[in-house]
Amino acid sequence: MTFQEIKNLDEQYVMHSYSRFPVALDRGKGATLWDAEGREYIDFTSGIGVASLGHADEGWLEAVAGQAGKLAHISNLFYTEPYAKAAAALCRRTGMANVMFGNSGAEANEAMIKLARKWSFDKYGKGRGTVITLNNSFHGRTITTLAATGQEKFHNYFFPFTEGFRYADANDIGSVEAVAGHDVCAVMVELVQGEGGVLPLDQEFVSRVAELCAKRDWLLLVDEVQTGVGRTGSLFAFQQYNIQPDAASFAKGIAGGLPFGGVMAGGKCRDVFSPGTHGTTFGGNPIAAAAACHVLDRLDGAFLAQVEEKGAYLRAQVEEMDLPCLGQTRGLGLMIGIEVKGGRTNQELAAKLIEKGLLVLTAGPGLRFLPPLTITQEEMDKGLAILREALG
Fold this sequence. Notes:
Layout: H1 3-13, E1 25-29, E2 32-35, E3 40-43, H2 46-49, H3 58-68, H4 81-94, E4 98-102, H5 105-124, E5 130-134, H6 143-148, E6 165-168, H7 173-178, E7 184-189, E8 192-193, E9 199-200, H8 203-216, E10 219-223, E11 247-250, E12 261-265, H9 286-298, H10 301-321, E13 326-332, E14 335-340, H11 346-356, E15 358-359, E16 361-363, E17 366-369, H12 377-391
Parallel strand pairs: 3-15, 5-6, 5-7, 7-10, 10-11
Antiparallel strand pairs: 1-2, 2-3, 4-12, 8-9, 11-12, 13-14, 14-17, 16-17
Helix pairs in contact: 3-9, 4-9, 10-12, 11-12
């Protein structure tokens, strides 16, 4: 189909809950994509951090096709090998106790909130279910995760929102203490605020939050939906912050392109969910779990070191360009935010770059790069050349 034919179908039959760029992508290899007309693009988005091993990775394809030929789905009423192996790999590499699988980041965060509230109910009874989150955070688009999101622009239209959330300022432990109370059960944070602008939290602040949670007997919840699975240069970002959360959510890159996510629980709350207290039809799906096993196998120490090196290279090159519309970079690993300055908006710059053949994202008021973790030197340099030419 041509781009116009695809667009016509979209306009007639698809709900317009997204503002799409005028590109219909058809196929990809590595960090390179081609549209319906055969035009080439360099991908600095990986499907918003999902295609962790790039596009059409041969090992990933073999894992997915092999499992699809054996068993596609059977439900959580029976055991299957892939989800059990994925859970074991996650726990052994993080020090967490067990895992519950779902389909998406929002669902993972919803499960983590439910886990915290049931843990508190089991121990303290009713009246202790409030979760403190941070201003400028983003935790998903369900009614509850929108309520957990600390951005006022998301708190509209869908009233009434779920109660039980209060918001504190990032990197201000006094702000966290100011909204505390006898009704609090947990603090939930993104260690790098993704949609808010790719803003890493300060190490000292995170340490103080962890200490406060231990002192007050609150759970420390870490939203690793975007920062997890190698994106920041470690398997999970909390491993760089030297903390051990009571629960951590994950999704996006875990299955390299398939819908998969979940929540890992620490020892304190490993037994909170008993049969019937939480569930999901597609959680632990064998095909997605087989893909996750392959992704986790690939993300060894040498691989993660390369993620850090690639991220440092991209940030240094962007800053050395000294483009008039771009400022400082920030982030961890291959989760990179870039300040936008001057008279043009980040949406305008993103549209210009996509027009010239470089797919990028926005976050907060800036640009965001989330390339595949497997991006090659040649692909990085091609993307940087387009950036220089388009915005210079």
